[in-house]
Backbone:
């Protein structure tokens, strides 16, 4: 039975990680067995997969969290101070993460999922910071 599947994923750039390669393989296989697949991705590149509708989620810029994330990056670059080790235990996540979540949410709110049979969320995973316990 043909299914309408929406996939929300952080990256479909197979060159950035093995997690992205695995996600793309799953997406391609879902389409290969006859499903209609729409992928909403936060890759920040215009990437197309054969037989799959791909929608690139644009990063929201000029927001409070975007400004804070860039400020943190500049401070780290010029003063060699890693603010993340102090800020992330307080806030739970990085300012970049908060901006990314808001960017993805803004795109998802505009989508019509009423005719979708299955929604899959994927991530390429992350690496634990050896500084953090």
Residues:
């Amino acid at each position: 039975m043909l299914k309408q599947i929406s996939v929300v994923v952080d990256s479909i750039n197979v060159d950035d990680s093995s997690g992205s390669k695995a996600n793309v393989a799953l997406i391609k296989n879902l389409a290969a067995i006859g499903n209609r697949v729409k992928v909403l991705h936060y890759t920040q590149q215009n990437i197309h997969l054969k037989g799959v509708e791909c929608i690139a989620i644009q990063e929201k810029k000029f927001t409070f969290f975007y400004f804070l994330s860039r400020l943190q990056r500049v401070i780290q670059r010029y003063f060699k101070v890693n603010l993340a080790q102090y800020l992330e235990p307080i806030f739970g996540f990085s300012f970049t993460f908060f901006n990314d979540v808001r960017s993805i949410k803004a795109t998802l709110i505009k989508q019509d999922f009423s005719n979708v049979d299955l929604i899959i969320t994927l991530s390429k995973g992350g690496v634990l910071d050896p500084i953090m316990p």
Summary: The first strand starts at residue 4 and ends at 9. The beta strands are 4-9, 36-41, 52-56, 118-122.
